[in-house]
Design goal:
The chain is mainly β and 327 residues long. It contains three helices and 17 strands. The protein has a 17-stranded antiparallel beta sheet that branches. The N terminus is likely disordered.
Length: 327
């Protein structure tokens, strides 16, 4: 009897992007920032041919809409919209709607500014706790004329929106705050705090750290981390480091750039674990301990010399380990 091993032909993806950008041109020599909006249409088609099965073609029709009022140091309304809708031609995949931003608010003051927002917001400096549907209050110090140093602090409270659908996580509320230090346009350091509760039980209580650090010789470092102050699911799991990520690059000469990524942490479903605790379900060691992982990726990139028709060369190597945490 001859056995045929299924063969999967690499799928073909064709992406078509049509953007519509609106921007009003000002007549003065120093124009003020204006309202910006964009509508994008994306068609993504994948064909799969598996031996022994009928060929299959999946097509995704996606629409993205963004709208922003300018971020200026003057009293003004503050409005933002960022949403995506995906429709699939196959009947076994439902449509998806993601609302990343959908807020309205206002800014008050010039030499030191207060900001108020209400609605859907994505707070990128807060890591996995950054999705919010609620209110945000922020004070932003006026930029210093010397080195452009600025401090900011904010507080937020609300519920957690769903990522791939409209609606909100049942019984989940979050609140917290953050403090940020910024120097110029490249250097930024943020420390955040968030407490997430599910039906009155503390799902997570964590600190977040985000750093953007430029340096000489083309050096730049991005670092992010999360630390659970208390074990997830009201202490059912252990606390400590949730994840640590560092990505850096540096120029080692006019034609060579070194880069590397280091990532370690623990993958644990705190939402499901808390739900199991609330409903009295038995807990498995895997659910409580999570999956510990570590990944290192060094690499380098050769730049094209000026005036030469030679492409760049990039080389990377990934070293990854994953293990269950010992009980």
């Amino acid at each position: 009897m001859r056995t045929h091993t299924p063969h999967v032909r690499p799928f073909l993806a064709v992406t078509f992007i049509l953007g519509l950008v609106t921007a009003a041109a000002a007549q003065s020599p120093a124009p003020k920032p204006r309202v910006d909006g964009r509508i994008g249409f994306i068609i993504n088609t994948a064909s799969r041919d598996v031996e022994g099965l009928d060929p299959r073609r999946d097509t995704e029709l996606a629409t993205t809409v963004t709208f922003r009022t300018p971020d200026i140091e003057a009293p003004a309304f503050d409005v933002g919209l960022d949403l995506r809708h995906s429709h699939y031609t196959t009947v076994d995949r439902p449509d998806r709607v993601s609302v990343y931003d959908g807020f309205a608010g206002a800014r008050f003051g010039t030499e030191g500014q207060f900001r108020v927002r209400a609605g859907h917001m994505w707070l990128p400096d807060l890591g996995t706790a950054g999705a919010l549907a609620g209110g945000l209050f922020e004070y932003r110090q006026a930029a210093s004329t010397h080195q452009g140093i600025r401090l900011a602090a904010g507080a937020f409270s609300g519920v957690e929106p769903l990522v791939y659908d409209t609606g909100y996580a049942s019984g989940v509320r979050k609140h917290g705050g953050y403090v940020a230090f910024q120097r110029g346009f490249m250097q930024r350091h943020v420390v955040g705090y968030a407490r997430i509760q599910q039906q009155g039980v503390t799902e997570r209580e964590l600190l977040t750290f985000t750093n953007y650090l430029p340096g000489k010789s083309g050096f730049f470092l991005y670092q992010a981390a999360e630390v659970d102050l208390k074990g997830p699911a009201n202490g059912t799991a252990s606390g400590g480091l949730s994840y640590f990520l560092a990505n850096g690059r540096v120029s080692a000469g006019p034609h060579l750039e070194l880069n590397g990524t280091y990532n370690r942490g623990r993958s644990l479903d705190a939402r499901r674990l808390t739900d199991d605790v609330l409903n009295g379900r038995p807990l498995t060691p895997e659910a409580v301990q999570g999956l510990v992982y570590e990944r290192r990726r060094p690499g380098h990139r050769a730049r094209r010399p000026a005036g030469r028709r030679v492409g760049g060369i990039t080389a990377t190597a990934t070293i990854a380990t994953m293990r269950r945490r010992a009980g």
